[in-house]
Amino acid sequence: MNEIGRLSEADGQYEFRDPSRNLIVRGEHPEWVLLAAAEVVGNTARLEAESVVEELNAMVEFEAVEPIEVDSAKYALKERFDLIPQCIVTVGKMDYKWAAPEGRAKKQEEFGDQALKRVHDMSLTRADTFLQNDHDGDDATTETQA
Q1: I want to staple 56 with a disulfide (CB 3.0 to 4.6 A). Which of 70, 126, 128, 139 is the partner?
Q2: 86-121: string of b/e by CB count within 10 Å (b at 16+)?
């Protein structure tokens, strides 16, 4: 596994470092730093991918590469930047689906007003016992009075 970047905290400031891009982002809150880093990394990656397509287009004119290589680079660009970002988020033992706000708006029935949707539906039980009272008619919350 390669480490891409690292988020750390020191003296009340949060810092994200990505040595491969010579990138340092600092801020008061971790979510601010991660949002800024994500935007910078995403914009940089898009520019890099677009420049590869432009470079390949120029090389086709000199017959240094085949047009199929341009098509492949264009497909990779579209696949990465046209798709709405989605991830699996694990919190403790539970897995959740996350989609960027644009995706959640398109799938309102799935996400509602939440950023995460549980992957496993805990209400699916073999005997329809989800949230079923296990006591035989006894109300465990009522105390008997003498």
Answers
A1: 70
A2: eeeeeeeeeebbbbeeebbeeeeeebeeeebbeeee
Q: List the structure tokens of 89.
A: 């988020």
Q: CA 103 to CA 94: how far, in whole Å? A: 21
Tens of pLDDT, residue by residue over 96-136, are: 999 999 999 999 999 999 999 999 888 888 888 888 887 76
Per-residue pLDDT reduced to its tens digit, 45-70 = 999 999 999 999 999 999 999 999 99
CA distance 113 to 115: 7
- What contacts 94, CB < 8 A, 6 or more positions away? 118, 119, 120
Query: What is the pLDDT of the chain when averaged over all its residues?
Result: 91
Number of H helices, E strands in the chain: 4, 6
CA pair distance 127, 46, nearest whole angstrom: 50
Q: What are the residues whose beta carbons fall under 8 Å from the beta carbon of 106, sequence distance 6 or more?
A: 84
Report d(CA 94, CA 73) in Å as an integer. Answer: 36
Do residues 32 and 7 lie in contact, with contact meaning Cβ atoms separated by under 8 Å? Answer: no
